[in-house]
Amino acid sequence: MRPADLVIEPLRDLEQLSELETDANADGQGMVSRLIREWRDGRNRFSEAGERVYVAKRGERVCGVCGVNRDPYAGDDSIGRVRRLYVSARERRSGIGRALIDRLVADASGVFTWIHLRAHEHRASAFYEANGFEAVEGNPDYTHRRRVSSVSGSATRT
After folding, report:
1. Residue 103 domain-assigned?
2. Has residue 49 been placed in a domain?
3. Is the pLDDT of residue 64 over 50?
4. Is 152 domain-assigned?
5. What distance in Å separates the CA atoms of residue 154 and residue 30, rounded to the nearest whole number?
6. pLDDT above 80: residue 157
7. CATH number of the domain that 118 lies in?
8. Which of 12, 38, 43, 148 is buried deepest, with most CB atoms within 10 A?
9. Does a structural domain hold residue 53?
């Protein structure tokens, strides 16, 4: 169940991620640091058409982050890729990850036909499968995919 005080909004400033980065690094996860590093060096600012990066906030505290890019491995601009999903350790299993994915998928409508991702852990695979992604066997570029509805505005946005 989603926390009543949860807000999903676009990332405005990398400083918003400092506490979340510390949490992720302590958890042995480097995706927040990688997002920050790639943003700073210009490799990925989620700035191409249809690309977005969101933070999940409870009050003023950022408790999650997730983005979507055009999938660089697909060779097709209609395919997006989930990037850098991380929810703070103490906030997991409270609906924050689902809320981030729901927002990305809703906003991907009309931009992407599919969203791909690579899950490196069983726990991540289970999460994505519970959130509408299908497992894909034998593909070297992605482990999961989800078709995106072509009807824009079909999901509630926060």
Report:
1. yes
2. yes
3. yes
4. no
5. 33
6. no
7. 3.40.630.30
8. 148
9. yes
- Residue (of 74, 51, 60, 52) closest to 15 by Cα position: 60
Least confident range of 43-47, 56-60, 109-113, 148-152: 148-152
Q: 146 Cβ partners below 8 Å, 6+ apart?
A: 105, 114, 115, 132, 133, 134
Q: Which domain holds residue 84?
A: 6-147
- Convert the chain into a string of H (helix), E (strand) and C (coil): CCCCCEEEEECCCHHHHHHHHHHHHHCCCCHHHHHHHHHHCCCCCCCCCCCEEEEEEECCEEEEEEEEEECCCCCCCCEEEEEEEEECHHHCCCCHHHHHHHHHHHHHCCCCCEEEECCCCHHHHHHHHHCCCEECCCCCCCCEEEECCCCCCCCCCC
The pLDDT assigned to 4 comes to 87
**Chain Cα centroid distance, residue 77:** 18
Count of alpha carbons within 13 Å of 90, Cβ hemisphere only?
Answer: 9
- At which residue do the structure tokens 């697909």 appear? 74
Confidence band (pLDDT; 50, 70, 90) for 3?
Answer: confident
pLDDT tens figures, 84-106: 999 999 989 889 999 999 999 99
Number of domains in the chain: 1
Report the 10 Å Cβ neighbour count for 19.
14
